[in-house]
Amino acid sequence: MDLINQALEFEKAKMSHMSTSDRVVASREAKRLILAINEIYKQTKDVKLMDIMKRLTVKKKKIEVRLKGRLDLNY
User: Fold this and answer.
1) CA–CA distance from 35 to each of 1, 24, 26, 72 (Å)?
2) Whole-number Å distance between alpha carbons of 42 and 56
3) Considering Cα of 43, then 45, then 48, then 53, what sign does the dihedral take?
4) What pTM did the predictor assign?
5) What's the pLDDT score for residue 73?
């Protein structure tokens, strides 16, 4: 259950005032946590694990938006 503690700690961490390299590291860490929790979820089908993965995915997407930039469709 150390993995779940790492995920919850990552979720609580502040993501403001990060450098680009810090964002890349955070995105990779989120991906690692999501994939590791997914392996456990496949065996247990625990709803709590799915909720954790969803929250981490939201945070990962926010980080990646800051890395890639927002797509502006209004020319």
Assistant:
1) 15, 17, 14, 31
2) 17
3) positive
4) 0.82
5) 63
Task: Tell me how far the alpha carbon of residue 10 is from its chain's centroid.
Answer: 8
Q: Report the amino acid identity of residue 48.
A: K
pLDDT range class, residue 66, cuts 50, 70, 90: confident
pLDDT, one tens digit per residue, over 2-52 is 999 999 999 998 888 889 899 999 999 999 999 999 999 999 999 999 999
Q: Looking at this protein, which amino acid is placed at residue 6? A: Q
d(CA 25, CA 23): 5
Task: Give the start-to-end residue ranges of the domains of the chain.
Answer: 2-68
Q: Tell me, letter by letter, the H, E, C secondary structure of 6-62.
A: HHHHHHHCCCCCCCHHHHHHHHHHHHHHHHHHHHHHHHHCCHHHHHHHHHHHHHHHH
Q: Which helix (H) or strand (E) holds 65?
A: helix 47-68
